[in-house]
Amino acid sequence: MKNKSWLLGLLLLAWACSSPEKKAETVAEVPVKPYPTFSADSAYAYVQKQVDFGPRVPETEAHESTKNWLLDKFEGFGFTVETQDFEAMTYDGLTWNLSNIIASYNPQASKRILLAAHWDTRRIADKDTERIDEPIDGANDGGSGVAILMEIARVIGTQELKPEVGIDIILFDGEDDGEPEGTEMRNNEQDFWWCLGSQHWSKNKHKPNYSAYYGILVDMVGAKGSRFYREGYSRQYASGIVKKVWDNAHQIGQGDFFIYKDSPEITDDHVFVNAFAKIPMIDIIEFSPDFGFAQYHHKHSDNMEIIDRRTLQAVGETVLFTVYQE
User: Fold this and answer.
1) Mean pLDDT, range 281-306, rounded to an integer
2) Each residue of 219-229: pLDDT tens digit?
3) What are the alphabetically sorted keywords of the record (predicted)?
4) In terms of C-beta density within 10 A (0-12 exposed, 13-18 middle, 19 or more buried), how is residue 42 classed?
């Protein structure tokens, strides 16, 4: 994903406003519904497994093996699973066969929550100083979000305590293959080369007239020292959901990770879900309003050495808690 403020003008729902930065906010205490335990050890193992497959670049053996593993795991958790297979053009003119993976719990429920991440990884390390043309492990950028949603699915599928709403987990493909750092490659056929899977799904939903009460996207949510700020598009499209999730994090003791401070707009999968699918979706993403993306971003240092169970726990428990409060 890229920080593209110009995209705001292309989208239907954008408006130029954001809430002022606040150093602290009062979190209203509300009755808490019981919720099961999120296991950071389990999530960590799911990150490791993805990395062990190798970089999950589309059209590679590692990508195909990872897809089959993901499908088997979600089915084993008792979710209804399907793929949305499609073709998309890359920034350098390739035609890729891509697959969005969709796993649903309680598909008959009318009230639904959409949880999303991307499962592909970047085929170049364009921010690195060596091995620039080689793909990255994507332990955090891709792997961590998938792992958290897998652990949430495992908990829902194996624990007696169930959420009262339907859950749809979508793992978008082709998110991280935009043009290299410092270049712009667009033509009349396609305005935007990032987030290919969410662009396709948002215009071609897996079920006609599908909708959800709201959505949560998790991206780069497992690195040591991560802090999560209120991203710009999330505030513009779904400010109430941002408040809900950040307040929930503070209520369950994860406030050190979820900071009551605004950050700029980040073009990520949630932008297209908001603009085209008309579902209010927020993005939990590591992007500092002061320093931008972390040092590992699109580098070979995005490997297992930066993954921290504490960060996985903070994000995973917050999302799990939020789902179980509906």
Assistant:
1) 98
2) 999 999 999 99
3) Acyltransferase, Signal, Transferase
4) middle
